[in-house]
Amino acid sequence: MTPTLAAQPVFRRKSLHEDLTEGIREQIVNGSLAPGTKVPEKELCLHYGVSRTPLREALKALATDGLLTLEPNRGAWVSKITQEDLDEVFPVMGALEALSGELACKHITAAEVRKMRTLHNKMVKYYEQRDLANYFDVNQHIHEAILDAARNETLSTQYRSLATRVRRARYVANMTQERWAQATDEHEQIMQCLEKRDGQGLSVVLKTHLENKLATVRDWLKDNDQPPAA
């Protein structure tokens, strides 16, 4: 009897909704759509080549994530970054970062560590060139690589649900040269802990690293008044 072949796996491509949501999310994170400003729906429709219907579905999804505020008959506004929001999100994110470091040191492979060292060296070069945009990009890849090495899907889901809000706060707050040097040194400590498989040490460094980011954003909030969201 001829065996029945299993059905071919279906590889789902990203939908228009997902692509649109991610594109607008990135504009919010990098500050192209600034905190407290109204979302320019007409311009976004032209930019992405879409109608109002898929755009507004994407805006609803971003509002659910806390990045936008939707007001009846007034459109969508980019949520302001507040001290209350920071005080709520950063401690939780710090605990998740710390746990990801502990678990990563238990499960990470030598090949993954070598890849992270390569990323780190690349990040340091961007630091030396004072290329902040590319520095942030590689920096994010390193943190995601640590999360992947933790081998815990529940942790990954919770982490990524908050990561956008943390990234957004980091992007808008201008780092001083002193803080940038400190952050780069902290990443070297992160690498050393990974190479030694020092989970406890990495947990402490990652938590401290995020606390220092929070201090930078707090300083920015003190010196910058955001436009009203209404």
Your description of this structure?
The chain has 230 residues and is mainly alpha-helical. The protein has two domains: 16-78, Arc Repressor Mutant, subunit A (Orthogonal Bundle); 83-223, GntR ligand-binding domain-like (Four Helix Bundle (Hemerythrin (Met), subunit A), Up-down Bundle). It contains nine helices and two strands, in the order H-H-H-E-E-H-H-H-H-H-H. Strands 1-2 form a two-stranded antiparallel ribbon. A hairpin with a 3-residue loop joins strand 1 and strand 2. Helix 4 packs antiparallel against helix 9 (199-223), helix 5 packs antiparallel against helix 8 and helix 8 runs antiparallel to helix 9. The longest helix is centred in the middle third of the chain and has 25 residues, at 83-107. Pfam families: FCD, GntR. Keywords: DNA-binding, Transcription, Transcription regulation. This is GntR family transcriptional regulator. It comes from Vreelandella neptunia.
